[in-house]
Amino acid sequence: MRIKYAVLTAIATILALPASADNTQGIAESTIKIGNLGPFSGPQSTFTPLNYGAEAYLRYINEQGGVNGHKFVTVFADDSCNEAKGIGAAKKLIYEDKVFMIMSNPCSGVAMAIKPTLVQEGVPWIGASANPKISRPTSPGIFHATYTGIESGRAMASFAMGKPSTTKIALAMHSDDWAHGYCDNATDYIRSHNGDIVATTVLEHGATDGTAQALQIKASGAQAVMACLYQPELIVLLRELQKFQINVIIVGALGADFNQVVQAFPNHDWLNQRFFQPYQFKARLGTGPLKKYHDIFVKYLTKDELPKVGEPTNFYYFGVPAAIVTVEAFRRAGPNPTRESWEKAMESLRDFDTGVLADTETFGPDKHVGVEKMYAVGLNAQGQETVYRAWGDALPETE
Predict the structure, then answer these.
(1) Which of 246, 242, 244, 193 is nearest to 224 (CA)?
(2) What pTM was computed for the model?
């Protein structure tokens, strides 16, 4: 009986112990396995720099020796920004590759589709998808280290209405949840600041002609447009507005890379002081504190992972904070991290400076979105890329 009692006591003691790295999926003696999910193929592959920015930082950390004796091993998975394919890719990462967590995941539709599985299996997620519903209300292990449509939508409207006497606003948007995440919050801000929505026009994914939408905006008398569109359709709309010489401010959402949009206009004088986007960063790309990350991208990414021409663009920088915050949480979780200790470490971050974003990161048990404050970016009257704190208030250059 004494032997039986001793065995039962030992089993009870083991069951009562907290989870350890020895039995936490994705954590081995010297490695942490990360799933990097994104649109590596298809028309939305313009988002993949978000994935590569995060990966560059993990490679950089590995070269520094890793974190608490662990180095990161990345498993890439392609979702093509397609929900069905994304679910299959995420399940492979979770059940076959047995990753600790999923990172990057730029496409909101995919993120929302895989969220039930992540929550059910307790697999952490820290991504760049903009849909606010991913992390609001809070779910165990689900964190946004970047801006959602709520913060970006408010920033879009605030910047446009900062131009004196700008009160008539048009919406140009996709009909999906991602676009509503931006434009609904922009609308709330506009109406609460005595503005009017004078037109709402829809341009769906894959559209190649925006004539009707541009003419509707022109007829509405709008002074500004909130363009809650992915990059291909945003470029279509801008070209139509230019074609019909429609004199409005256009503020795009973060479904487009500012530099790539500008590059799509060989003679982009028309964009000067007309096209803007919310701006996530504390300095102009590649300058000041962001130069460190430019150098990380160039050193640790392959030729195929970097732009075919030119310097690393907006999305590379926007992807890296997910990895920076993830690494900091592992640092705080200690040498034997578990899902529970990693999540508590994430929730312990207060005013944490990534060195990249305009705002510092603050999380908590009831707050899984880390950042709020944003700037804006556009071309000034001379065609130079300029960061603005508000309309007409340029951020000092940092070289």
Answers:
(1) 246
(2) 0.88
